[in-house]
Every structure is written in structure tokens, then in C-alpha cells.
Design brief:
Elements (H helix, E strand, L loop, with lengths): L7 H4 L3 H14 L3 H28 L2 H18 L8 H27 L8 H31 L4 H22 L7 H8 L4 H29 L1 H5 L2
Helix pairs in contact: 4-5, 4-6, 5-6, 5-9, 6-7, 6-9, 7-9, 8-9
Length: about 240
């Protein structure tokens, strides 16, 4: 069994429930412009990346793969600081290094030791896994930075605020691990099952994914909190 290609006419049907939410946001005046912008940006980005990935996969070039990873790293590092109003530019370098080391090392560990991909830069593996890792690291840093600033703003000692921020950063991935298999089947496992892969094999891959996301979230948020200590403590 192979997964069915969704016709564009049926794909449009998925936006009908979303339109209901948009209408309610408009009626209640709760940020409809931002939601519409996010929706439009999502469409453009996914269509563009779909075509781009076809070319990247066909190129089989290590240089192109590394360039894509660099763009993903810079974008995730900047977006991670969306929760901050001050010191964002100053903290950008710390965010880059935190995701590069925490996420990059996790990516290398998984692709080279666990999966043992050949060649080492295989874009079919490297880019999707990097996307998951960098996005998770981005979210963790964003939560950690926001909570740390809040705790410091309320006069708490930095060490105590740092611990609370780290615990907050880990909430999404820990909740995901509680829910996986019981409440939800994550994207990678669902995609593999839909494409006809044995659920046992899909489960092994999902275990790998959850472990790597836990590691990248923890390492990236810890590195960011330690590196940004001087800036945030004196903010």
C-alpha cells in the first residue's frame, strides 16, 4: 500500500474548519491579522520548500545540504527569541551557539551513529531530522528565555529563576513523551504507517525521534541559559 496523493481540490477542504476559526477570531477581535499572515506564510513556505527539497535531494551535494542546515540554524535561532522585547540582537549569537551545539551534536549523533546514513550528508535524512531538532530546540529556548525574564522581573534570584526557566522549557517535550502512543501518534510515525511501513518499525523510529528531541531540547536550553546569564541577569 502506498500513500495517496491528495488532489488540490480536496486539499482545499482542509481550510473550511480553519475558516470557521478565522471568522471567530475576527468577531472576537483576537489577532486575526496575525493568524491570516501566519496561514499565508505557512502556505508559501511549504509550497516553496516542497519544490526546493526536490532539487536538493536530486543534487546529492554535501555543500548544498550544509547550506540548508545553516539557513535552518539561523532562522530557528532568531525565531527562538520572539518572546523577548529587549536584548534580542545581543542574545542572537547565544541562541545560535546553543542550537548549533545542543541540536547539532544531537543531529550528528543520530545520523552518524544511530542511523549510520551513507553518505553522511544524505539530504533525505539530514534535512528532515535537522528540522525536527532545530524546531524543538527553538521552542525550548523561547520558553526558557521568556520564563527567565519573567522570573527575574519579579525579583527572584538568578539561580532560582534559571531552574524554573529550564523546567518550563522541558514541559512540551515531557508532555509529548507522556502522550505519545496513548493520546497521539506523532507525525513521523503516522507518516510511516500511512506509507505502509510495519508499525513496529515505525515505533522504533519514533522512539529514536523522541529521545533525540528530549536531548536537543534539554541541551539547547541549558546552553542558552548558561551562555546568556550575564546579559539576562543585568537586563
Amino acid at each position: 500500500m502506498s500513500i495517496e496523493t491528495i488532489p488540490l481540490t480536496r486539499l482545499l477542504l482542509t481550510f473550511i474548519p480553519a475558516a470557521v476559526v478565522i471568522v471567530m477570531m475576527w468577531r472576537w477581535e483576537v489577532g486575526i491579522s496575525k493568524a491570516l499572515y501566519a496561514m499565508a506564510r505557512m502556505l508559501l513556505q511549504l509550497m516553496a520548500i516542497g519544490y526546493a527539497l526536490v532539487m536538493i535531494f536530486n543534487s546529492d551535494s554535501s555543500a548544498i545540504t550544509l547550506l540548508v542546515l545553516l539557513v535552518m540554524l539561523l532562522a530557528s535561532s532568531w525565531i527562538a527569541l520572539n518572546t523577548l522585547e529587549a536584548n534580542r540582537l545581543h542574545l542572537f549569537s547565544y541562541s545560535i551557539w546553543a542550537i548549533l551545539i545542543g541540536g547539532g551534536l544531537t543531529l550528528a549523533w543520530v545520523t552518524q551513529l544511530v542511523l549510520d546514513i551513507k553518505p553522511w550528508y544524505s539530504p533525505q535524512y539530514m534535512i528532515p531530522l535537522a528540522g525536527m531538532i532545530f524546531a524543538n530546540s527553538m521552542t525550548s529556548i523561547s520558553l526558557a528565555a521568556e520564563r527567565l525574564g519573567s522570573e527575574l522581573g519579579h525579583g527572584h534570584a538568578f539561580d532560582d529563576a534559571q531552574k524554573v526557566a529550564f523546567r518550563t522549557a522541558m514541559i512540551p517535550i515531557i508532555n509529548s513523551m507522556f502522550a505519545v502512543g496513548l493520546v497521539s501518534l506523532p507525525g513521523m510515525m503516522t507518516g510511516q504507517i500511512l506509507s505502509g511501513i510495519d508499525p513496529i518499525i515505525a515505533a522504533r523510529y519514533q522512539i529514536m525521534v523522541m529521545a533525540m528531541l528530549f536531548a536537543s531540547s534539554g541541551l539547547s536550553s541549558l546552553l542558552f541559559l548558561f551562555a546568556a546569564r550575564k546579559v539576562l541577569q543585568n537586563a
